[in-house]
Amino acid sequence: MAADTLLERITDYANRANPYPLYAELRDAGSVVQQADGSYMVGTYHEITALLHDPRMSADPRSRTTPSPGPSEETARLPFLRLDDPEHHRLRTLAMRPFGPPHSPGRVDAMRGEITRITAELMESFQTAPQIDIVDDFAYPLPVTVICRLLGVPREDEPLFRQWSDTIVASADVTTEEDTTERDRAGRQAREEMGAYLVGLADQHRGRPTGDMLSAFANEPDPAMRLTPEELAETAVLLLIAGHETTVNLITNGVLTLLRQREHLDLLRREPDLLPRAVEELLRYEPPVHMRERIPRTDLDVAGTTIPKGAPVVLVLASGNRDPKRFHEPDRFDPTRPDNEHLGFGSGIHLCYGAPLARLEAQAALGALIPHLSTARLLQDPPPYRQNAMLRGPRHLPVQL
Amino acid sequence: MAGDLRDGRIVIVGASLAGLRAAEALREEGFTGSLTVVGDEPYPPYDRPPLSKQVLLGRVAADSTGLPMRRDPEADWRLGVRASGLDPLGKRVVLADGKSLPYDRLLIATGTRARTWPNPEEAALDGVFTLRTRDDAGELAERLAAGPRRVLVIGGGFTGSEIASACRERGLEVTVTERGPAPLVGALGGTLSKLAAAMHRNNGVDLRCGVTVTALRGDASGRFMGADLSDGSRVEADVCVAALGAVRNVEWLADSGLAAGPRGIACDAGCRAFNMYGIVTDDVFVAGDVSRFPHPLFGYQMLSLEHWGNAVAQAEVAAHNMVSPGPLRRPHLAIPTFWSTQFGLNIKSVGVPTFSDHVVIAQGSLEARRLAMVYGYQGRVTAAVTVDMAKSLDYYRHLIETAAPFPPAPGAADRPIAADIPVPSDVPDPKGLSHGPTVALTGYLPDRRLTVVHPTG
Amino acid sequence: MRIVVDLTRCQGYAQCVFLAPKMFQLHGEEGLLYAPAVPDDQAERVRQAAAACPVQAILLGEEVSADGR
User: Fold this and answer.
1) Chain pair B-C, CB pairs under 8 angstroms
2) With an 8 Å Cβ cutoff, is B52 touching chain A?
3) What pTM, to 2 d.p., does this model score?
4) B337-441 — its CATH code?
5) Is the Cβ–Cβ distance between B241 and B157 less than 8 Å?
6) How many CA atoms lie within 13 A of B244 on its CB side?
7) C-alpha neighbours within 13 Å on the C-beta side of residue A327
8) Domains defined along chain C, listed by start
9) Suppose C26 and one of A102, A337, B19, B431 were both cysteines; which one would form an S-S bond, judging by CB atoms 3.0 to 4.6 Å apart?
């Protein structure tokens, strides 16, 4: 088939369970492949990394010369992952202050115990069940609970928070529904309510620091480094949306991969020290984020092709991760892979903000699950996938324990 | 005859970063013969960059920076013994203890040592230091921990600036003297040296540029008390660090017939040493700070670099070529890269900033203390320096590798208006500085430095 | 266990600082300082940090023993 229909075929739901042959076709078609709709796809590792580090590439959808096909994505204020420097740098730096180094280097590390406890609690609920859904019963509730504890949402409010979160996450998902008006409205409302709730919570903490992240936001001593209430709400909601489905996908893809390739399951049970590297290999082999869009702010020559200013460029990270020009035997899942500079979290200035948290959650979740999977089997392979081709992952993963 | 090359006797002189990495790489390349590594310091290979940072800050001990092995090179380590001579015809390294080591192939990685204060009596005063070895760093860190009233740093290069930064972070008073117009000017040129000077002063360093130290003063018991400066002023201090740059460890090769001089040992792109007639040897290889090698991106001038990354990359190429037959040998073409952390700023450089005539700030700004500066020579990009913008460096590396036009193409969202106005790079001759250069374009002759090429047409 | 970070490769993503904050620190916004000698109780965290480094710049291993063997 013609290479200029690749994006269409990749986003076609029929190919969701296994897009990797299409990625191979994309790489074979060249480093830069123009699509019939005027967009460009890049699927080779070295070109993707070069573009992720190229200051002339914009993450801001307003850099498009053709309007974005989506309805009103651009009407709201953009989160920093869709902004360019210097504004991106300013907001990300502020958002980083209570979350990570240099100002809060121990924040995520201090969550280790909590993450392990939450994981154990979730496992208790299905200790006796013969059959579970890895997504609904385990992977899905984990990240939202971790974010609640990280932010400092009181336990009694967690169900409320989880409800908003469900609505927001559902509205951010891509579906085949013709009319998404109602879902969009519900999503917007949940965002506003959650934002208002978090701002209120931060207000309560002001002057009474409690050690959690929201309190650190609220009690930032340097006025120049303080987020406005709107920025605070947006950042917290962003942390939730960007961190939720991706983490669910990472954990679920991990279970799926290990149950498909049981020799690695046995290896990890024997050598749990390999788990951190196994998670990195998952991020390469079955990453939660398959594609990111960038827009050149000027005409750009990439591997002999000129991409015009303002044209959407789809960087297929998951294809770069399988590029044989970069990785030895790229289609092999190998938790001991020595050279694993994967694109699972992107690269460059927009490298995933929540990456350390996602890593710890995936390590804790898989570490807790692995001892229970020795006799488990997949009830449906391939499992049903979500619609979204960019954030790709199973909707359910039923497993017989 | 690849089989033969993987066997035999290899001697590596130099047991620091390049020596260790070469030893590991030789085994990775399948070398099964005998491997001997000679080092003049009594310690196993250790890392030096932390010595002027973590160690002086008192965060880690000077004896804790031992380098991890990527694999055990199964070498015979001769530590604490200096190589004193080379017999290239008899193929023997002569050691200071009178023994000699026969070799089939030799790798020279003897690196550099600190240039000492030129007056030996003054240099011997208690409280006068240089900083190169782990012993230097351990003793200096101890003195800093004792809380001296003031530290005098002679030389505003990278080492001197990092020492000053560590002292200020420890709350110590510091005076830095630099013969040139500003710190780091020899490495980064005029514009960034002004930022460096501002960082010194904003952090409370007593920075004296355009002066030299004329004498170090001691008390009756031989303790350092202060220094006289060329402007007639006097600095009272308890500790003095001479950060005057490095001297290449080549004296032991004086009678070897190799092309060894003050700027290092000349070698070809495959790390093979030249002899004094410019004839390439095939059994003597060179890697790391002690080498000078030709680079096609910088007019094939001979580069000598004091860079961590160069030691690693060149050691690996040398090791590969030592066990590979001619057609399978690789050239050492890595783009020079280095970093420095000082006054809370992360400075990274790629290319050769001194190989330039103009510069332009391509991203960010001096005011924000966050920027990417691009260096050009005759209309092409030859270097870039980032300040707290390391994630952009790969982009500029690509521009250097492809000899992209200078000034670089517009398009960056954080491109300042100043990006349209290249200014002279303003790199002074290192002869006018207190400290030696960490990157030197050494021209084609060992003792002549050729940076400016005047176009004839 | 000893570590060395190839700061030529390091781009300041600070993933190591998140995962092993006692061993890795940021100096300013992106300069990395680290403790080369790893105590046993930090070894697991350091291994995680090395695995997580986006540019694979952290090398860990044993040093050449003091008697040169």
Assistant:
1) 113
2) no
3) 0.94
4) 3.30.390.30
5) no
6) 18
7) 24
8) 2-55 (3.30.70.20)
9) A102
Q: Cβ contacts of residue A299 below 8 Å, gap of 6+? A: A306, A307, A308, A309
Which 8-state DSSP code applies to residue B163? H
Residue range(s) occupied by CATH 3.50.50.60 in chain B: 2-50+65-113+247-328, 116-244
How many contacts, defined by CB atoms under 8 Å, are there between A and B?
48
Q: Would the CA dihedral through A153, A209, A196, A359 be positive or negative?
A: negative
Q: How far is A60 from chain C (nearest CA, A)?
A: 21
Q: Would you tell me which residues 67-86 of chain B have a C-beta closer than 8 angstroms to some C-beta of chain A? A: none
Biggest distance spanned by C-alpha atoms of chain B: 67
Burial classification of residue B368, based on how many CB atoms lie within 10 Å of its CB (0-12 exposed, 13-18 middle, 19 or more buried): middle
Q: In what order do the strands lie in the sheet with B302-305?
A: B260-261, B264-266, B291-294, B302-305, B439-441
Q: Tell me if A348 and B412 make a contact (CB, 8 A cut-off).
A: no
Question: Which residues does chain B have within 8 Å of residue C29's beta carbon, measured at their own beta carbons?
Answer: 344, 346, 370, 388
Q: What is the CATH number of domain B2-50+65-113+247-328?
A: 3.50.50.60
Residues of C with CB under 8 A from a CB of B: 1-4, 6-8, 10-13, 25, 27-37, 59-66, 68-69
CA distance C52 to B143: 38
> Alpha-carbon distance B363 to A88, whole Å?
14
Give me the domain span that covers residue A360.
3-400
Q: Would you call A116 helix, strand, or coil by DSSP? A: helix
If you measure CA to CA, which chain A residue comes closest to B391? A348
Residues C25, A279: C-beta atoms closer than 8 Å? no
**Closest chain B residue to A84, measured at CA:** B413
The minimum CA-CA distance between C65 and chain A, rounded to whole Å, is 25
Angle of CA points B346, A47, C11, to nearest 5° = 15
Q: How many domains in chain A?
A: 1
* Structure-token match 């690269």, residue found: A347
Helices (H), A219-342: 229-260, 262-270, 275-285, 317-320
Rounded distance between C-alpha atoms, residue C37 and residue B61, angstroms = 9
User: E strands of C1-69, at which residues?
Assistant: 2-5, 24-27, 31-34, 58-61
Nearest residue of B to residue A83 by CA position? B413
- Judged by CB atoms closer than 8 Å, whether chains meet at C12 and B339 is answered as no
Closest Cα to residue B143, out of B245, B246, B55? B55
Mean pLDDT, chain B, rounded, equals 93
**CATH number of the CATH domain containing A139:** 1.10.630.10
Tokens coding A238: 């962003």
Which of C6, C11, C60 lies closest to B391 in CB terms? C11
Domain B116-244 has CATH 3.40.50.1820: no
The whole-angstrom separation of Cα C28 and Cα A91 is 17
- pLDDT tens per residue, range B416-451: 888 888 999 988 877 778 777 777 766 554 444 444
Q: Do A86 and B364 touch (CB under 8 A)?
A: yes
